[in-house]
Design a protein that fits this description.
Blueprint lengths: L5 E7 L9 E5 L5 E7 L6 H13 L7 H26 L5 E9 L2 E7 L3 E6 L2 E4 L6 H7 L30 E6 L5 E5 L1 H4 L4 H7 L4 H14 L6 E7 L3
Antiparallel strand pairs: 1-10, 2-3, 3-4, 4-5, 5-8, 6-7, 6-9, 9-10
């Protein structure tokens, strides 16, 4: 099933930013994808996201979920060390988020740092597989603010974890079964801060390339205040 996943990716600078600090990665093996979002307002965010994408693109996959997750984690740790060192030399913070999806052995694994996301659409129901490493997510979890208040909160852009943030990388991983017909979406926060879950779910019903185009067009129609990047992966069935 994983060998025949249909996938597409698209990244856009948006309507306000002058540079695209996002990067998307499609692994040549056809079972591994990632989105990285260079931290806005920080030096060389585009370089940081490209560094992560390059490290992940070079990972050698075996088709074994556990082994390949370890290889991806090692690549992210190496990227983190490289970005941390660049920040030390520059005497300023350089960082990027990352969200990755691996399909192997009839399962999926999501690996992430920061507030880029992985969603799954199954049977018309959209589920966020990742949990944002962000100040507003902590406020929502603590019951201090409501989920619908998060997007417009003053701390909406503050992440609590990032590649390049700390020498010891805190990477989260979740695994689940991959089922025929599943559709996965990886995105930078430029998407989910403009579109609701219901809007995202409706647009994911299309084939991957058309879905990517529709998602980005919808964000641009809302003024796209940030870069926006999407990867859509559909399993046959």
């Amino acid at each position: 099933m994983n060998d025949h996943a249909e996938a597409a990716a698209l990244s856009h600078v948006g309507c306000v930013r002058t540079a695209n600090e996002d990067s998307v990665m499609t692994h040549p093996g056809g079972s591994f994808w990632a989105v990285a979002d260079g931290m806005g307002g920080h030096a060389r965010g585009d370089w940081a996201s490209q560094t992560v994408a390059a490290r992940l693109h070079a990972v050698s996959l075996t088709g074994g979920l556990d082994h390949d997750c370890e290889a991806i984690a090692d690549a992210l740790a190496a990227a983190n060390a490289e970005v941390v060192e660049a920040g030390r030399v520059a005497v300023r913070t350089i960082g990027t988020t990352v969200a990755a999806l691996l399909l192997a052995e009839g399962r999926c694994a999501c690996l992430w740092v920061g507030d880029s996301r992985v969603y799954r659409l199954r049977g018309g129901m959209l589920r966020q597989m990742t949990r944002d490493h962000s100040q507003v997510d902590q406020l929502v979890a603590a019951g201090i603010i409501r989920p619908e208040e998060a997007a417009d909160h003053p701390l909406a852009n503050v992440v609590t974890r990032a590649i390049g943030g700390e020498p010891d990388l805190a990477l989260d991983v979740v695994e689940d079964a991959a089922v025929a017909g599943d559709v996965f979406l990886l995105c930078s926060d430029g998407l989910n801060k403009c579109l609701s879950d219901a809007e995202i779910a409706a647009l994911l019903e299309a084939a991957p390339a058309a879905a990517c185009d529709a998602l980005v067009r919808a964000v641009l129609a809302r003024g796209a205040p940030d870069n926006v990047s999407v990867v859509v992966v559909r399993l046959p069935g």
